[in-house]
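Lab notebook page, bench 4
Experiment: in silico fold of construct C2
Operator: M.H.
Input chain length: 146 residues
Purpose: comparison with the prior construct
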Amino acid sequence: MSRPTDLMRRALLAALSYFALVFGAGFVLGAIRVPLLVPRLGVRTAELIEMPVMAVVIVLAARFVVRRFQLPATARVRLPVGGIALALLVSAELLLAVALQAQSLGAYIASRDPVSGSVYLVMLGVFALMPWGLGRMRVTGSPREH
């Protein structure tokens, strides 16, 4: 197998793994948030409480896949990993929201809280950029891979 093909395969597997880890954690947290926190605190507060936990999950998952799949610290490799994972995450969340809540896509989007929904959009951006951002934030003494 040629080196570029191997790198593309590793990047795709990294994107799939990154998506699965973060989506799985979000699914578990949602299963806790909806029945336990939403009735007591409301949707906005419950979702905002969940956001820092998801931020930690995103960082840990991105760090894991970058190391596990030995992704070079280049935008050319890591940005597509985040982009593919983002496309999978948004698709899965919208599909589940429409299927589980029996709402149209438009009704689901319109029902989002403006505050926690805005924070959610920012978190999606963080999710997409984190694999690349970890390479940018690296502070080791070794030179960056090109």
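Observations: The CA atoms of residues 28 and 85 lie 18 Å apart. Residues 3-136 form one domain.
Next step: discuss at group meeting.
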